[in-house]
Amino acid sequence: QVQLVESGGAFVQAGGSLRLSCVASGRTFSSIVMGWFRQAPGKEREFVATISRNGGMKRYADSRFAISRDNAKNTVYLQMNSLKPEDTAVYYCAGSLTVDNISPRAQDYAYWGQGTQVTVSS
Q: What are the 10-residue block averages of pLDDT along the chain, 122 residues in total?
């Protein structure tokens, strides 16, 4: 089992930046492919970013965002810049032990955090 705990969500002004963190436990962190997803009210969960086990491969839905990981700290980060009101959502980190490298598909991730709220005001 993998446990994931996000933090860093906040209320920010449009144009601002925010860094989310997600700490994993339960398995060797370097064995887990990590992803970030978000879900706004009334909308489906959508892909934000994913990173491979050693951090060498990444994929983003938006170039304003950057994903990174520190395997020594069991932590994955999501740096969000130039935030817009439409970025308002609950942000979830997710982990997979079975994905080969990276994946933008929510159904590929078996482990999910509880989510952290990001609210961007105009």
A: 97 98 97 98 96 97 97 98 98 97 98 98 94
